[in-house]
Design brief:
Blueprint (H helix, E strand, L loop, with lengths): L4 E3 L3 E4 L11 E4 L2 E3 L4 H18 L3 E8 L2 H5 L2 H6 L4 E11 L12 E12 L6 E6 L1
Parallel strand pairs: 3-5
Antiparallel strand pairs: 1-4, 2-3, 5-6, 6-7, 7-8
């Protein structure tokens, strides 16, 4: 097991990604301790979702994102197994949706909290987003 690490202290991260998708310019990343993953591994997973959110979540503004914790992540090991991966990580986020309803599947002019992002990887490679939602 990896050493427990305190992960970023409620830092606000400013991203200057393109505005073609969702808004990720002022994302609050919450601090989380982990005995499974280093802060770099967690940040790599977060960056994977932030890039996807910016690209594909038009009409949505990501407000915060964070590691769900070791206990929650361990409960999702079946996601790694069914995706032929070794590891899984679960992130949680909050985001706002404008009047467009995002891609039409979200409620217009609403906020979503505790939204799950499930990512997997093999041999400590790159994180792959495999599912999201409640």
């Amino acid at each position: 097991m990896k050493k427990a690490i305190i992960f970023l202290i409620s830092a606000t991260v400013l991203f200057s990604l393109s505005a073609c998708g969702g808004n990720v310019r002022n994302v609050n990343i919450i601090d989380v301790a982990s005995e499974i993953y280093t802060s770099d591994e967690i940040m790599s997973a977060i960056e994977t979702i932030i890039k996807e959110f910016d690209k594909d979540w038009s009409g949505c503004t990501l407000k915060e994102i964070y590691y769900a914790g070791d206990d929650i992540t361990q409960g999702y090991q079946d996601w790694a197994d069914r995706n032929d991966a070794d590891e899984v990580i679960v992130l949680l986020s909050s985001f706002d949706v404008d009047g467009s309803g995002g891609d039409g599947s979200l409620n217009s002019n609403s906020s979503y909290h505790h939204w799950n992002w499930i990512l997997v990887r093999t041999n400590s490679g790159e994180w792959q987003h495999v599912d999201h939602g409640y």
